[in-house]
Amino acid sequence: DDAQAKYNIDADRIYLWGFSAGAHLAHALGLNNTDYFAAYGVSAGGLTQYACSDDGSFSPSCAALLGGVARKIPVDIHLGDADPLYTIYGAGNDPARFESYGWVLNQDLYYTLFSGGHAYTIPQLGDIWHNLCPHAVIP
């Protein structure tokens, strides 16, 4: 809001990206503010690490969160195949969670499983931007 007050920002094209804990938070912020963010991306993050729960360990449930969004906000997920979030904590299930609530792969859901661990690269940021830039809150 401070940046919007000072600069000429297109309010329909505000994007969010997060890495690791910032990615966990980006899931929560993006999905709870679909009227504010045009789209969001996560690198090395998982839905069930902060945004929602499948097992009732905290609220909301992933079903309630994903099923209750005002619009299917575009999301880009990058995850390493050696990342503990993928190998142990189930973040690899996140694309299927989104798809089961109406997101469509390569339309408003982008998923890249890459060879590597808990990391991101500059080229990955370019891929995320390429996927999300065309989306706006109100096209």
Structure commentary:
The chain is an alpha/beta fold. Helices cover 32% and strands 16% of the residues. It has 6 helices and 4 strands. The chain has helices at residues 2-6, 21-32, 62-67, 84-87, 94-100, 122-132; strands at residues 15-19, 39-43, 75-80, 109-114. Strands 1-2-3-4 form a 4-stranded parallel sheet, sandwiched between helices. Helix 3 (62-67) links the parallel strand 2 (39-43) and strand 3 (75-80). The longest helix has 12 residues, at 21-32. The protein starts with a helix and ends in a 7-residue tail after the last helix.
Largest sheet: 4 strands, parallel
Question: Care to count the β-strands?
Answer: 4
Unreliable runs, pLDDT <50, ≥5 residues?
Answer: none
End-to-end separation in angstroms reads 21 Å
Name some characteristics of this structure.
6 helices; four-stranded parallel beta sheet; 139 residues; alpha/beta; globular
In a nutshell, what does this entry contain?
This protein has 139 residues and is an alpha/beta fold. It has helices at residues 2-6, 21-32, 62-67, 84-87, 94-100, 122-132; strands at residues 15-19, 39-43, 75-80, 109-114. The two termini are 21 Å apart.
